[in-house]
Design a protein that fits this description.
The chain has about 170 residues and is α+β, with helices and mostly antiparallel strands. The protein is about 35% helix and about 15% strand. The protein has 2 helices and 5 strands; from the N terminus they run αβββββα. A 3-stranded antiparallel beta sheet has the order 2-3-4, with no helix packed on it. Strands 1-5 form a two-stranded antiparallel ribbon. Strand 3 and strand 4 form a beta hairpin.
Length: about 170
């Protein structure tokens, strides 16, 4: 009662196909699992970021502590002042120097407005528009530093800021 030789080959082929099918299904299940975990992780990050960064303004650091800045002339910066409407800032692409003035880089600036205008040793801020939809003209009289620019900022507890304001 021996089996014909073709029967063994058919059994081996069927077993190989079943093994390949099982392996493909396992691979697909693993890929699907990683995809779901990745999406869940991204969603968690997005929710955590939305919780931790609420109502950012120039007076607060990202972690919610108070921002305390000084101007390059040593005076404290008035961070309640903003040269643009709330929620907008000067648009660097929308800035230009008046006729006869040359655009020069502000030494040591790594963020914010990088250029000022100069003519015969006199430095002025450029004419700029704000990033709001109306394209409001920047009101430099409302800059946190009356002269110069914000030089250095630190993040402090609210009670420390109140003491320095008194």
């Amino acid at each position: 009662a021996s089996l014909p030789s073709y029967s063994t080959a058919t059994t081996i082929t069927t077993t190989s196909q079943q093994t390949v099918t099982i392996m493909l299904r396992m691979w697909l299940a693993i890929v699907l699992l990683f995809s779901v975990l990745s999406d869940a992780r991204q969603l968690h990050r997005r929710q955590r970021t939305q919780r931790s960064v609420k109502n950012l303004d120039s007076q607060h650091c990202r972690d919610g502590r108070w921002r305390n800045c000084t101007c390059n002339d040593g005076t404290p910066a008035n961070l309640t002042q903003n040269p643009c409407p709330e929620g907008s800032r000067p648009d660097r692409a929308g800035c230009k120097c008046p006729d006869g003035y040359e655009e020069v880089a502000v030494t040591g600036r790594t963020h914010g407005l990088h250029q000022v205008c100069t003519k015969e040793g006199v430095m002025i801020r450029p004419d700029c528009t704000c990033t709001d939809q109306a394209g409001t003209r920047v009101d430099w009289t409302r800059h946190p530093c009356k002269e110069g620019h914000v030089n250095k900022c630190t993040c402090t507890k609210e009670s420390q800021v109140k003491l320095t304001m008194l």
